Structures are given as structure tokens and as C-alpha cells.
Amino acid sequence: MALGTLQNVGPLHGHEIRRIADVTSVSSWGGVSAGALYRELRTMDEGGLIRSIRTEQVGRRPARTVYEITTDGEAELRALREQAVTQVHHGTDPFGVALLFTRTTELPTLRDLLKRRRVAVRTVRDDIAAECARLQKDGVIGALDAVMFRRRVMQLDAELAWQDELDKTIEESAASDASGAHTTDQTAEASQ
Length: 192
Known about the structure:
Layout: H1 2-9, E1 12-13, H2 14-24, H3 26-30, H4 37-46, E2 50-56, E3 64-69, H5 71-86, H6 94-100, H7 107-137, H8 143-191
Antiparallel strand pairs: 1-3, 2-3
């Protein structure tokens, strides 16, 4: 994030990079720790990926070091970008674990939880779409940024479509279990 920002925007001090991270909320959707930014800037400076070009001080504010990306930094950014774009990343999935280890006797509880999840997913989707619209209206983001917001909205739409399929499967499974139990009861009565 820092290397890409320095390449795209030009020389900046850490606070300016941090503000860009905050405005884009990259920590919540991109896994970028804005809190570790200053440490990372120092590490990249020591590693030759960026270099400090000057120190600025405005009024009584603390002095701030302005950085620019180096040739080595641009090469590293290309390598990181290639890796991030061409590899499929899978993270932890507590939702999948919960589903995998849910017993069929817990289906009524699961149905209630899934209804609540659907509301939460829709809320997040709608919030992201609204934020994108607001940022576009204010001229803060361009078309490429808007497409990135749209990607997340589409991912959440896919999650909702998958949940429709899951709900149908649960209903069919419950119906099958109920008819199987009914048949077992009839067989037991007939054998008495």
C-alpha cells in the first residue's frame, strides 16, 4: 500500500500515507495495518525501497520525513503486485468451520443464525455501495476505485446467492429427515 501510494502520488510523509489509508479504510478490507505504517516506512527506508528526501515541520507540529520510492522499491512493488494479483488467496473461514461442525439437531438454531447473517451481509453490502456513491459524488474516487468497491459488492451478492442455496439444502435435508423419521416410526408400529 505504501509503495503503491508513493509510486502513484509521489513523495509524501508518513502522516499523508496514513490519511490515505484511513480514507480508503484499507485496514478493514485489505488487511493492511495502518498502525504499523511508520515501522514499515523505517524498514523500507533501511532496505532501500524508499528514501527520505527531506524533513518538513509546519508550525508546532512534529517534524515529518518525506519519502519517495526508489528503483528497488518499484521493482519490489512490481513483484508484490504480481504476486497479489495472480495468486488466489484463502483466509480463515470461521463461518465455514461453524457450518461444517453443526449437528442436524441444531438446524433450528442454525436457521435463525443464518437469517441474522443474511441481514448483516446485506447491511455491509449496502453500506459499501452507499460509501462508493458518496465518494464518487464528492469526486474523491475515480472509475477504477469505484470498480473496486463494486467488486466487494458483487462478492457479497455472491455470498447471499450461495446462502439461498444453503437455505434450500437445509430445508430439503430437514424435510428428508422428517419423512425418514416418519417412515421409521411406521415401520416400528407395523413390526409391533
